[in-house]
Amino acid sequence: MKLIEVQSYDEMSKVAAEIMIEQIKTKPNSVLGLATGGTPIGTYQNLIKDFTKNKTSYEKVMTVNLDEYIGLEKDNPQSYSYYMKEQLFNHINIPENQTYLPSAKSVEEEEAGRNYEKLIDSLGGIDLQILGIGENGHIGFNEPGTSFSSPTSIVKLAESTREANARYFTKMEEVPTHAISMGISTIMKSRKIILLVSGVKKAPILNQLFHTDVKEDLPASILKKHPDVTIIADQEALSILKESKGSVYS
Ligand code: F6R
Domain tally for the chain? Predict the structure, then answer.
Protein backbone atom coordinates (compact mmCIF):
# COMPACT_ATOMS: atom_id res chain seq x y z
CA MET A 1 0.00 0.00 0.00
CA LYS A 2 1.33 3.38 -0.95
CA LEU A 3 0.62 6.21 1.50
CA ILE A 4 0.19 9.82 0.40
CA GLU A 5 0.32 12.07 3.43
CA VAL A 6 -1.60 15.33 3.04
CA GLN A 7 -2.26 18.24 5.38
CA SER A 8 -6.01 18.49 5.31
CA TYR A 9 -9.35 17.23 4.04
CA ASP A 10 -9.17 19.79 1.25
CA GLU A 11 -5.77 18.61 0.10
CA MET A 12 -6.90 14.97 0.24
CA SER A 13 -9.90 15.86 -1.91
CA LYS A 14 -7.73 17.68 -4.47
CA VAL A 15 -5.19 14.88 -4.74
CA ALA A 16 -7.92 12.23 -5.10
CA ALA A 17 -9.71 14.24 -7.79
CA GLU A 18 -6.43 14.72 -9.70
CA ILE A 19 -5.89 10.95 -9.76
CA MET A 20 -9.45 10.39 -10.99
CA ILE A 21 -9.13 13.06 -13.70
CA GLU A 22 -5.85 11.55 -14.86
CA GLN A 23 -7.58 8.15 -15.05
CA ILE A 24 -10.39 9.59 -17.21
CA LYS A 25 -7.94 11.41 -19.48
CA THR A 26 -5.86 8.26 -19.95
CA LYS A 27 -8.93 6.08 -20.53
CA PRO A 28 -12.05 8.09 -21.42
CA ASN A 29 -14.29 5.03 -21.08
CA SER A 30 -13.03 4.18 -17.59
CA VAL A 31 -15.18 2.26 -15.15
CA LEU A 32 -15.03 4.17 -11.88
CA GLY A 33 -16.03 2.56 -8.59
CA LEU A 34 -17.55 5.25 -6.39
CA ALA A 35 -18.21 5.63 -2.68
CA THR A 36 -20.69 7.72 -0.71
CA GLY A 37 -20.53 9.05 2.86
CA GLY A 38 -18.87 12.21 4.09
CA THR A 39 -15.32 11.48 2.94
CA PRO A 40 -15.59 11.72 -0.88
CA ILE A 41 -17.80 14.83 -1.02
CA GLY A 42 -14.80 17.17 -1.40
CA THR A 43 -13.35 14.93 -4.11
CA TYR A 44 -16.60 15.13 -6.06
CA GLN A 45 -16.63 18.92 -5.62
CA ASN A 46 -13.18 19.08 -7.16
CA LEU A 47 -14.33 16.92 -10.09
CA ILE A 48 -17.25 19.30 -10.64
CA LYS A 49 -14.93 22.34 -10.49
CA ASP A 50 -12.62 20.71 -13.03
CA PHE A 51 -15.54 19.80 -15.28
CA THR A 52 -16.80 23.39 -15.23
CA LYS A 53 -13.36 24.85 -15.87
CA ASN A 54 -11.57 22.30 -18.03
CA LYS A 55 -14.51 20.38 -19.53
CA THR A 56 -13.07 16.95 -18.70
CA SER A 57 -15.69 14.74 -20.31
CA TYR A 58 -17.59 11.92 -18.61
CA GLU A 59 -19.54 11.05 -21.75
CA LYS A 60 -17.95 7.63 -21.98
CA VAL A 61 -17.28 7.04 -18.27
CA MET A 62 -19.24 4.36 -16.43
CA THR A 63 -19.66 4.31 -12.68
CA VAL A 64 -20.52 1.55 -10.24
CA ASN A 65 -21.19 2.45 -6.64
CA LEU A 66 -20.19 0.41 -3.65
CA ASP A 67 -23.47 0.17 -1.85
CA GLU A 68 -27.05 1.20 -1.26
CA TYR A 69 -29.45 0.93 1.66
CA ILE A 70 -32.32 -1.50 1.44
CA GLY A 71 -35.73 -0.01 2.07
CA LEU A 72 -35.14 3.51 0.77
CA GLU A 73 -36.60 4.59 -2.57
CA LYS A 74 -34.21 6.19 -5.08
CA ASP A 75 -35.79 9.60 -4.53
CA ASN A 76 -35.31 9.42 -0.76
CA PRO A 77 -32.70 12.11 0.09
CA GLN A 78 -30.93 9.59 2.36
CA SER A 79 -30.51 7.02 -0.40
CA TYR A 80 -27.11 6.75 -2.02
CA SER A 81 -28.75 7.01 -5.39
CA TYR A 82 -29.99 10.48 -4.45
CA TYR A 83 -26.62 11.37 -2.89
CA MET A 84 -24.74 10.52 -6.10
CA LYS A 85 -27.02 12.72 -8.20
CA GLU A 86 -26.78 15.61 -5.74
CA GLN A 87 -23.05 15.35 -5.12
CA LEU A 88 -21.82 14.51 -8.61
CA PHE A 89 -23.93 13.18 -11.46
CA ASN A 90 -26.22 16.20 -11.84
CA HIS A 91 -23.20 18.46 -12.25
CA ILE A 92 -21.15 16.62 -14.90
CA ASN A 93 -21.94 15.30 -18.38
CA ILE A 94 -22.28 11.62 -17.49
CA PRO A 95 -25.28 9.94 -19.13
CA GLU A 96 -27.61 8.66 -16.38
CA ASN A 97 -27.74 5.19 -17.93
CA GLN A 98 -23.98 4.82 -17.40
CA THR A 99 -24.26 5.24 -13.63
CA TYR A 100 -25.02 2.15 -11.60
CA LEU A 101 -25.69 1.44 -7.96
CA PRO A 102 -26.51 -1.96 -6.52
CA SER A 103 -30.12 -2.20 -5.52
CA ALA A 104 -32.45 -4.63 -3.81
CA LYS A 105 -36.05 -4.06 -2.84
CA SER A 106 -35.89 -6.46 0.11
CA VAL A 107 -33.42 -8.60 2.04
CA GLU A 108 -34.87 -11.67 0.28
CA GLU A 109 -33.73 -10.49 -3.16
CA GLU A 110 -30.57 -12.58 -3.22
CA GLU A 111 -30.15 -12.47 -7.00
CA ALA A 112 -29.56 -8.70 -6.76
CA GLY A 113 -25.94 -9.31 -5.73
CA ARG A 114 -25.32 -11.77 -8.53
CA ASN A 115 -26.83 -9.36 -11.05
CA TYR A 116 -24.51 -6.58 -9.90
CA GLU A 117 -21.50 -8.90 -10.27
CA LYS A 118 -22.59 -9.73 -13.81
CA LEU A 119 -23.03 -6.06 -14.58
CA ILE A 120 -19.51 -5.17 -13.37
CA ASP A 121 -18.10 -8.07 -15.41
CA SER A 122 -19.99 -6.94 -18.50
CA LEU A 123 -18.46 -3.46 -18.14
CA GLY A 124 -15.00 -5.04 -18.13
CA GLY A 125 -14.30 -4.65 -14.40
CA ILE A 126 -13.45 -1.59 -12.33
CA ASP A 127 -10.48 0.53 -13.41
CA LEU A 128 -10.32 2.76 -10.36
CA GLN A 129 -12.20 2.20 -7.11
CA ILE A 130 -12.59 4.96 -4.52
CA LEU A 131 -13.04 3.77 -0.95
CA GLY A 132 -13.70 5.32 2.43
CA ILE A 133 -13.19 3.36 5.64
CA GLY A 134 -15.61 2.84 8.52
CA GLU A 135 -14.46 3.50 12.07
CA ASN A 136 -14.72 -0.29 12.50
CA GLY A 137 -12.59 -0.95 9.41
CA HIS A 138 -15.39 -1.74 6.98
CA ILE A 139 -15.01 -1.12 3.26
CA GLY A 140 -18.21 -0.80 1.30
CA PHE A 141 -20.65 -2.11 3.87
CA ASN A 142 -18.59 -5.22 4.47
CA GLU A 143 -18.56 -5.26 8.24
CA PRO A 144 -15.89 -6.92 10.43
CA GLY A 145 -16.06 -10.71 10.11
CA THR A 146 -17.19 -10.66 6.46
CA SER A 147 -15.44 -13.32 4.39
CA PHE A 148 -12.73 -11.94 2.16
CA SER A 149 -14.20 -14.06 -0.62
CA SER A 150 -17.61 -12.40 -0.34
CA PRO A 151 -19.28 -11.37 -3.58
CA THR A 152 -21.80 -8.52 -3.79
CA SER A 153 -24.57 -9.37 -1.37
CA ILE A 154 -27.17 -8.20 1.08
CA VAL A 155 -25.59 -7.36 4.40
CA LYS A 156 -26.73 -6.49 7.88
CA LEU A 157 -25.28 -3.21 9.08
CA ALA A 158 -23.32 -3.18 12.32
CA GLU A 159 -25.03 -1.12 15.03
CA SER A 160 -21.92 1.09 15.15
CA THR A 161 -22.31 1.77 11.41
CA ARG A 162 -26.00 2.63 11.85
CA GLU A 163 -25.02 4.99 14.69
CA ALA A 164 -22.24 6.59 12.61
CA ASN A 165 -24.69 7.16 9.74
CA ALA A 166 -27.59 8.30 11.95
CA ARG A 167 -26.32 11.86 11.46
CA TYR A 168 -28.04 11.90 8.07
CA PHE A 169 -31.44 10.79 9.43
CA THR A 170 -33.83 12.51 11.83
CA LYS A 171 -34.03 9.53 14.16
CA MET A 172 -32.12 6.31 14.73
CA GLU A 173 -35.14 4.12 13.84
CA GLU A 174 -35.07 5.53 10.31
CA VAL A 175 -31.53 4.24 9.66
CA PRO A 176 -31.90 1.08 7.56
CA THR A 177 -30.75 -2.18 9.12
CA HIS A 178 -29.59 -3.73 5.83
CA ALA A 179 -27.80 -2.71 2.68
CA ILE A 180 -26.54 -4.27 -0.51
CA SER A 181 -22.78 -3.98 -0.77
CA MET A 182 -20.19 -4.72 -3.38
CA GLY A 183 -18.28 -7.73 -2.04
CA ILE A 184 -14.72 -7.70 -0.76
CA SER A 185 -13.68 -10.07 -3.55
CA THR A 186 -15.32 -7.71 -6.07
CA ILE A 187 -13.52 -4.66 -4.65
CA MET A 188 -10.23 -6.58 -4.77
CA LYS A 189 -10.67 -7.23 -8.50
CA SER A 190 -10.47 -3.46 -9.18
CA ARG A 191 -7.33 -2.62 -11.09
CA LYS A 192 -6.48 0.35 -8.89
CA ILE A 193 -7.83 1.41 -5.49
CA ILE A 194 -7.70 4.74 -3.67
CA LEU A 195 -8.56 4.71 0.04
CA LEU A 196 -9.47 8.12 1.46
CA VAL A 197 -8.99 8.65 5.18
CA SER A 198 -9.71 11.95 6.87
CA GLY A 199 -10.35 13.24 10.36
CA VAL A 200 -9.47 12.36 13.90
CA LYS A 201 -12.29 9.80 14.16
CA LYS A 202 -10.45 7.64 11.63
CA ALA A 203 -7.07 7.87 13.40
CA PRO A 204 -7.52 4.70 15.53
CA ILE A 205 -8.56 2.49 12.60
CA LEU A 206 -5.83 3.84 10.32
CA ASN A 207 -3.29 3.06 13.02
CA GLN A 208 -4.71 -0.46 13.42
CA LEU A 209 -4.70 -0.98 9.67
CA PHE A 210 -0.96 -0.38 9.52
CA HIS A 211 -0.20 -2.54 12.53
CA THR A 212 -2.43 -5.53 11.96
CA ASP A 213 -2.05 -8.67 9.91
CA VAL A 214 -4.54 -9.33 7.16
CA LYS A 215 -7.63 -10.60 9.00
CA GLU A 216 -11.36 -10.69 8.41
CA ASP A 217 -12.00 -8.79 11.66
CA LEU A 218 -10.57 -5.74 9.91
CA PRO A 219 -12.00 -5.82 6.38
CA ALA A 220 -9.74 -3.04 5.04
CA SER A 221 -6.66 -5.12 5.94
CA ILE A 222 -7.22 -7.18 2.77
CA LEU A 223 -6.07 -4.14 0.81
CA LYS A 224 -2.51 -5.04 1.83
CA LYS A 225 -2.77 -7.92 -0.64
CA HIS A 226 -3.81 -5.72 -3.57
CA PRO A 227 -1.01 -4.71 -5.97
CA ASP A 228 -2.15 -1.11 -6.51
CA VAL A 229 -3.62 0.61 -3.46
CA THR A 230 -2.96 4.24 -2.59
CA ILE A 231 -4.07 5.59 0.77
CA ILE A 232 -4.52 9.35 0.93
CA ALA A 233 -4.66 10.39 4.57
CA ASP A 234 -4.72 13.78 6.25
CA GLN A 235 -2.87 14.85 9.40
CA GLU A 236 -5.81 14.23 11.74
CA ALA A 237 -6.27 10.71 10.44
CA LEU A 238 -2.51 10.08 10.74
CA SER A 239 -2.24 11.52 14.25
CA ILE A 240 -2.07 8.20 16.16
CA LEU A 241 -0.06 6.37 13.51
CA LYS A 242 2.61 9.06 13.57
CA GLU A 243 2.93 8.88 17.36
CA SER A 244 2.90 5.10 17.72
CA LYS A 245 6.17 3.30 18.32
CA GLY A 246 7.26 0.97 15.56
CA SER A 247 4.93 2.63 13.12
CA VAL A 248 5.64 2.89 9.42
CA TYR A 249 6.83 6.36 10.29
CA SER A 250 9.52 5.53 12.83
C1 F6R B 1 -19.86 4.38 1.42
C2 F6R B 1 -19.18 3.22 2.00
C3 F6R B 1 -18.64 3.24 3.38
C4 F6R B 1 -18.00 4.58 3.78
C5 F6R B 1 -17.54 4.52 5.24
C6 F6R B 1 -16.96 5.85 5.68
O7 F6R B 1 -20.27 4.11 0.11
O8 F6R B 1 -19.09 2.23 1.36
O9 F6R B 1 -17.69 2.21 3.52
O10 F6R B 1 -16.95 4.85 2.93
O11 F6R B 1 -18.59 4.17 6.07
O12 F6R B 1 -17.99 6.80 5.72
P13 F6R B 1 -17.68 8.34 5.92
O14 F6R B 1 -16.98 8.80 4.71
O15 F6R B 1 -19.05 8.99 6.05
O16 F6R B 1 -16.86 8.45 7.15
Answer: 1
